[in-house]
């Protein structure tokens, strides 16, 4: 594929290898998998055997007129244990590698009209390595060259997997709240879904086609 200044991301660049309805279902499953994996699962409560104290019988079994009680750490008492409370656990939703690839592929296909592949990004990345005002330069580049207002548009920048390009772009955009930088190897459905516009370098495009579209 010849590298041009701008490549239109259409059906010729990426071909959908699954039915669109099936692909949308896989997108839903993959996003659910990512959201579940982000849960810490550290919430915990104590049972009556784990709460401190309660070794002494509060009062005698009979003769007081009150209900019988064997421990002050009973779940019926204030400060006692919790019945069927949450415990630390790890929840995993399994999704096959082929399904994850098809989910990314379908989302790229659905968002093809909002994707721009530009060789100018690679030139910009080389310039940013030797520039002090990286954020200002990147902001003006998006505003003038691509007609993208980063104050109103959520942008996803996909760079090549290897090299210092990802770090350079990350340093230039870390103060911009609407910009996310990700390498082609770490591309995921959640980042793609949140983005309104997607910028991809030609090298990153080749990596995406090798990883997700073959």
Please name the CATH topology of the domain at 6-17 and 96-212: Ribosomal Protein L4, Chain: A
Which sequence of strands runs across the widest sheet? 1-2-5-3-4
Poorly predicted residue ranges: none
CATH class category of the domain at 6-17 and 96-212: Alpha Beta
Mean pLDDT across residues:
87
- Estimate the strand proportion: 5-15%
Name of the CATH homologous superfamily of the domain at 6-17 and 96-212: Ribosomal protein L4/L1
Which percent range fits the helix content?
A: 25-40%
How many individual helices?
A: 7
Query: Can you name the CATH architecture of the domain at 6-17 and 96-212?
Result: 3-Layer(aba) Sandwich
Distance between the termini: 15 Å
Protein structure class: alpha/beta
Inertia-based shape: elongated
The radius of gyration over CA amounts to: 27 Å
Order of helices and strands: EHHEHHEHEHEH
Biggest beta sheet summary: 5 strands, mixed
- The tally of strands reads 5
